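Researcher: Re-running this chain for the archive, since the previous output was lost when a drive failed. Same request as before.
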Amino acid sequence: MWSRRLALGLVAAPLVARAQGNWPDRPVRIVVPYSAGGVADTTARIMQPKLAEHLGQSVIVENRTGASGSIAAAAVAQSPSDGYTLLYEGSTYITLPLVNRSLPVDYEAALSPVGISNSQPYIIGIRAGFPARDFAGLMEEARRRPGLVTYGTPGVAHIGHFMGELIQLMGNVRMEHIPFRGGADVARELAAERIDVGIISFSSLRPAVARGARLIGSTAPQRSPTMPEIPAIAETLPGYELMAWTGFFAPAATPQGPRTRFLEALRQTLEDPGIRQRMIEIGNDPLFGDGAEMAATIRRGRETLRRIMQSANITLG
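Model: Regenerated structure tokens:
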């Protein structure tokens, strides 16, 4: 009996290897949980043509917004586990399950990390007519009018939301959180002066800056060499640091063959000088890491964000 099973295994293994070796033989779909024009969408579209070149197949970027990203996550989790549908998500993979007990998908059980592509600070932007002109002034205004200064982020439990909560904790202020479907929506409302503050990526904020919004702080621990004019929040609130990142997730049962093939295409894409330059220009730090490195990033981030959640008294909903 054992020898027969072994023989069957030896016959089957090359067939599986050949099937995975042919991957991909049709277009690969990348699902972005946020609106067009936001950092995840912009970064995915920067990488899209090179990923397609290295995979030898078309790569489709699809925006699937709503419910702070969980609609897209559920759609990917319910897709066939064949590597043809991937989720392009960031820290919300950690934060959303921490604050919402009724999600349509169990993130950790249904989705697994494939590879990380970039990290970036978020930038604090204030509307054109806001009374303050710098981050210290924002803190003074928030203390003067507790709960009346509004700040927008790409959604409840998005990393931007946690960044705002950490600002309130460390600055001893209270502001009102306004969630949106993505960074582009935050920038639009900031440009129209319907919210006071936006906590989103640099690339998402650029249209609002063209309409008079001012960039007053970065969530990085120090000023970036590529954006030296934007002070770190830590210059006003010593010790403040909270970075965002983005990476690819697959349905949990996706075999190793497609994962490895996609990861190699991602590595080659991120090594391309043109891709790196375009990502840096929008405030991203190209950062390649495999599934294991991405999982370690998730574990570290979960502990940090859980502490913020507990300190800010953010309760499960």
